[in-house]
DNA sequence: CTATTTGTTTATCC
DNA sequence: AGGATAAACAAATA
């Protein structure tokens, strides 16, 4: 599930652990989540450290610990962060924290248990020791909400990917960090562009529509889902896109679900007719 | 039993 | 050579 806004939400779930020491690290070294990570080194370096800060960029999370230690987390398809509180009257923490089958990484603090849970294990955990944040973090492209993502950058990328469907293009993290399947559908619906449209076909005013839809969906998603995971209003495509019988909030006509660029895509044929009306 | 899934990497083909 | 596409990863859910 996690896209830009969900990742930002999950980042804050661990906030109560800020400025608190890690007493113990539990992890499942066989979980695929650690495929790029030396789990022994990770445990050694995090034990006894204080969680200083956290940040989210696109779908990536970075937690900074004392002693120049950095924990990178990507949630993949099914990853989530959660937390449980430890009752201060109970000293037996093992009896307080019931480890779920898919809790592959756990930081135990004196008052909180910070948990990474991922059933499908497409998520990724990595560790970095150094004065500076890791290189992969610094290389994440500028946030879509920043002024560094502008119409010129969008146009240049659409030109480079001119033969791809716009749906596939919007999912490219190298240009649109944080966009995922539902956000891409929401953007195209708001900009009234068919998901099968080739990138080259978007020009002039339609390029402007697309640009502002990207900005708007990022802002709205962060303000609603990213803030406290409250349910978006029914005026978004979001609430209607998951099942097979959803109706377009604009036209009240049935939405269509098809695979576009390898991903399930929901769109409103009556509402999204750019670049022409030849498809239904 | 089968089909589907909110993400990314890798191999393969053009 | 660069870019598009399909498969693979793994487990839950319908």
Question: Could you walk me through the main structural features you see in this protein, from its secondary elements to its overall organization?
Answer:
The protein is of the alpha+beta class and 280 residues long. It has two domains: 4-138, N-terminal domain of MutM-like DNA repair proteins; 151-267, Helicase, Ruva Protein, domain 3 (Orthogonal Bundle). 27% of the residues lie in helices and 21% in strands. It has eight helices and ten strands. It has helices at residues 4-13, 39-46, 93-96, 135-138, 151-160, 166-170, 181-191, 205-228, and strands at residues 24-27, 51-57, 60-65, 69-74, 79-85, 103-108, 112-118, 124-129, 256-260, 263-267. A four-stranded antiparallel sheet has the order 1-6-7-5, covered by helices on one side. A four-stranded antiparallel sheet has the order 2-3-4-8, with helices on one face. The chain has a two-stranded antiparallel ribbon with strand order 9-10. Helix 1 runs parallel beside helix 8 (205-228) and helix 7 crosses helix 8. It is elongated and about 65 Å long. The protein binds a DNA duplex (14 and 14 nucleotides) through residues 1-3, 6, 32, 59, 74-78, 102, 119-124, 160-161, 163-164, 168, 171, 173, 180-183, 242, 261-264.
What key attributes describe this structure?
single chain, 280 residues, alpha+beta, N-terminal domain of MutM-like DNA repair proteins, Helicase, Ruva Protein, domain 3, 2 domains, four-stranded antiparallel sheet, 8 helices, elongated, DNA-binding
What do we call the CATH homologous superfamily of the largest domain? MutM-like, N-terminal
Count all strands and give the number.
Answer: 10
Q: So, CATH architecture of the largest domain? A: Alpha-Beta Barrel
Low-confidence stretches: none
Rg for CA atoms: 21 Å
How many domains, as an integer? Answer: 2
Give the H and E element order: HEHEEEEHEEEHHHHHEE
Task: Describe the sheet with the most strands.
Answer: 4 strands, antiparallel
Strand order of the largest sheet: 1-6-7-5
Structural class: alpha+beta
Beta-strand percentage? Answer: 15-25%
Helix content: 25-40%
Determine and state the CATH class of the largest domain: Alpha Beta
Arithmetic mean of pLDDT: 92
Distance between the termini: 29 Å
